[in-house]
Amino acid sequence: MFKKILLCSVAAFGLSACGNGGGSASDTSEGTAETTPFTTGRDQIKIVGSSTVYPFATTVAENFGRSTSFKTPIVEATGSGGGLKLFCSGLGDNFPDITNASRRIKASEVKRCAENGITDIVEVKIGYDGIVVANSTKSDRMELTLRELYLALAKDVPDGNGGLKPNDYIYWSDINPTFKSTKIEIMGPPPTSGTRDAFVELAMEGGCQTFDWIKALKETDSDTYKAICHAFREDDSFIEAGENDNLIVRKLNANPNALGIFGFGFLDQNGDSVQGSVIDGTPPTFENISDGTYPVSRSLYFYVKKDLVGTVPGITEYLTEFTSVRASGQDGYLSEKGLIPMNVDEHAQWQSQVLALETLSLN
């Protein structure tokens, strides 16, 4: 069940239990915009998307609800990919107004939005996050290279003769004889997750490119390169643990030999029980993520349907709160939740263009 900050029944955004009209998103076929104009009867912002951005969005939503006359927005964690799919499915009461994302929106998603009548999108960058590979504090902290991480997770791995073989590394000591002979067990996000997308780009490709012959394929045969670098192993050494990062933390506490992949914010909130692995000699700290020295760092976003500004009450005010210095600035209250803030100049630039409702450009 998705996480919510309001105790109301939510069924595919039908929201009848919350006093909103309309049917469910399933009433409209996938990839097809509503045939009737979107309504203006709803008075509550609906937000979906990234489980990594979820704690930040709920914190802002709660502060927004307490400090304004608007209703507290409904926030759900559906994963970045799932959220963008819902977001781009149409305009109106049956669809979310805002979607959170732990990666930037893709061109294919912008195209899908446009096909469904959503042509003006406001992009909001909120700060940075690191993706950690964590284990229980009951175990020793892991020190891994990107190459070792790739070899632990890839579906196929180099065979030493210029080719590939199915991943037969079962124990960590199979990858590096200095490691303990414990079974490789890594829990991570599903394909719908922005954390998964970012991890593939930063960690899997980072490790993959330490093999020169694979790195060369990026320019000469990109499809083969992606097949080698992006595919996760399908045995029990890698387990898709869903979108609930808190569940991964609980499982790590129950299994000290396992590792889990999730955002720095969850590590920051659970530092008494889990610890982040050192990657390529750099630990995942606030400072190392902020200055870009930690190799698995990314930007965090959310996206807004500009057409709904002035139609769904409170969207402008929500944007004002989220982009304020007191919220997402250097010493804002979101940094206490684990958000790595932008520097002063970058924050001011994003705040200015968001409040001006500048629309997205992927150029």
Automatic annotation (TrEMBL):
Keywords: Signal. InterPro entries: PBP_domain, Phosphate_ABC_transporter. PROSITE patterns: PROKAR_LIPOPROTEIN (PS51257). Residues 1-19 form the signal peptide. Residues 39-324 form the PBP domain. It holds the Pfam family PBP_like_2. This is Phosphate ABC transporter substrate-binding protein. It comes from Algimonas arctica.
